Amino acid sequence: QVCAQLCQRPCYCPWVPPHCPHGSPLVLDGCGCCKICARRLGEPCNFLHVCDQSQGLICDYNSVPAGTGATCNFEESEEGCEVNGRVYRDGEVFQPSCKLQCHCLDGGFTCVPLCQEDVRLPTLDCPYPQRVEVPGKCCPEWVCETQDQHLRLDSGAASSLLSSPCQAWGTEWSACSVSCGIGFSTRVSNQNQYCRLETQRRLCIARPCPALPAAALVSQ
């Protein structure tokens, strides 16, 4: 009955197929007549405007209040990852920020930093290296400050620097070594009793690890 009301025969389609946005392929509409742009994850859908089945999407009428239509969503059996309120499909590579690249796999995700975690030690020509955020750039960069600049920026520490032969220096803590559970982050610092540069570690928790499926626990 729905087909009889919405689908007309013969088909009358535009001469020029629509220009689809990136990631939305051309597919046949629900009547099997005209080429349309497949709806993507989270976009509204109905019998005519179908979802991108190549991405494992279906028109989900349960994800929205009754009477307000439907949206494209993954099938319930499809594994996915939810990050910052957005769902990514299993196997998808995504960037939650310009500093991280993540991979969704089996309901969890792992991330690697895109910014270099290099360490710059003090030298004669750069005695006060500082890693700072640069406007318009994603990753922080190393800059060299003179002693006068260093003392002006931190006037409270000036007296301690003058009275103490050991000038405190250290890098920022690195990202956590794991994407979930307990890991560790590192930094290089001379804040110890010998005033020597050393690599220091501390525990960190990125996020709780997803629970293993019951079937996997039984198989173990």
From TrEMBL:
GO terms for cellular component: extracellular matrix; extracellular space. SUPFAM superfamilies: Growth factor receptor domain, TSP-1 type 1 repeat. Residues 1-75 form the IGFBP N-terminal domain. GO terms for molecular function: heparin binding; integrin binding. Its main location: secreted. It comes from the Eukaryota. Keywords: Disulfide bond, Secreted, Signal. One of its GO terms (biological process) is signal transduction. Residues 79-145 form the VWFC domain. It is found in: Secreted. SMART domains: IB (SM00121), TSP1 (SM00209), VWC (SM00214). It holds the Pfam family TSP1_CCN. Belongs to the CCN family. This is WISP2 protein. It comes from Ceyx cyanopectus (Indigo-banded kingfisher). The gene is Wisp2_1.
